[in-house]
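Trying the structure run again after the queue cleared.
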Amino acid sequence: MENNQSLYPSDVVFTPAVKKIQQQQGSRKSYASMEERGGWQTQIDTGLQQFLAKIDSFYMGTANNEGQPYIQHRGGPKGFLKVLDEKRLAFADFRGNRQYISVGNLSENNKATLFLMDYPNRTRIKIWGTAVVVDDDEELLESLSDPGYRAKVERAIVFTVTAWDVNCPQHIAPRFTKEQLEPILAASKERIIQLETILKSNNIKF
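Done. Tokens:
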């Protein structure tokens, strides 16, 4: 951990001020028990790697030196947030509206967070760490690009994991993409055709 005062991975966000509120609200005991049992993960395991392989978008939070936060949506082909090793993730930064707020924030404050949602399975994962912008490593940029995805790669962002945690599914409404719904709708349409054929063969009007 970067902060020598930190005892647990969750201390990256469970600051003394946060723990004080938890104490006041009655949740500190359960979180202290979680911390003593090992708490949040600090390395990328197989489960997280498999989760990332299915994700085609996520949100990245950064802040400037004045502490002004910024959340940016990142999208791409499935699995574009790639695992480099047990501590590092990386993704291609595709050309967008060219505001460069995240890039600017990271140039003066390398702390960042990733927020990933799997709506169909009502799962969300939060990852805290540091990030660096890389625009002069052709081998890395090539490894992160996808020939089948029509978007210009401007740079790479490499994220070093400090801690990560899986949230509970409470209040997550399931949502499905067009790609996820197409096979279900196709099967339903085929069944409707079959039923209509049966009705016609029996001279039943509908």
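The chain has three domains: 1-39, 41-172, 176-206. Worth checking whether this holds up in the mutant runs.
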